[in-house]
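Researcher: I'd like a candidate sequence for this fold, 172 residues long. If you have to choose between options at a position, lean toward the conservative one.
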């Protein structure tokens, strides 16, 4: 995407990543969420949850959750205060799961984000780039090893870094 003249529609973007108990949306629950502004300000929350998790989450996600836990209602209030009332565009790597779990946390009417969630993988695809962020990181010179995989805050930071590199000099 670099050098392709990709100019974002808006600079009012926040990068969101979530970790959740499993892929079964109706059964799964949000266990952590990160929101990172374009400016680099960030909010990371781990949610109270003591229910079942799938094997992947038990192995890859839970060991990385070491912070204090907050109730879902407190998480929603803190995210709203952090994001503000501007209805920023929520941008996530794969979009669909993050948008579903954010919607589940807030409800559709109460979420602080624009009603149209943005999906970085689709953006890459539409610009002829294979929608794999690790491939793009190599192309753009982003050291993926600086960011833990399957940790909401590091994944949101990584996405922000890719976005900034891919749109270098093209912000509005």
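Model: Candidate sequence:
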């Amino acid at each position: 995407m670099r050098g392709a003249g990709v100019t974002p529609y808006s600079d009012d973007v926040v990068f969101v990543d979530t970790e959740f108990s499993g892929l079964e949306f109706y059964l799964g629950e949000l266990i952590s969420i990160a929101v990172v502004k374009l400016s680099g300000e960030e909010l990371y929350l781990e949610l109270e949850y003591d229910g079942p998790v799938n094997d992947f989450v038990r192995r890859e996600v839970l060991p990385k959750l070491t912070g204090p836990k907050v109730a879902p209602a407190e998480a929603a209030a803190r995210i709203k205060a952090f994001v503000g009332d501007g209805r920023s565009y929520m941008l996530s790597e794969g979009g669909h799961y993050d948008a579903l779990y954010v919607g589940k946390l807030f409800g559709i009417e109460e979420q602080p984000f624009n009603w149209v969630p943005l999906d970085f993988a689709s953006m890459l695809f539409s610009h002829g780039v294979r929608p794999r962020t690790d491939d793009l990181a190599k192309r753009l010179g982003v050291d993926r090893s600086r960011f833990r995989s399957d940790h909401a805050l590091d994944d949101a930071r990584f996405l922000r870094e890719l976005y900034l590199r891919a749109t270098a000099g093209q912000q509005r």
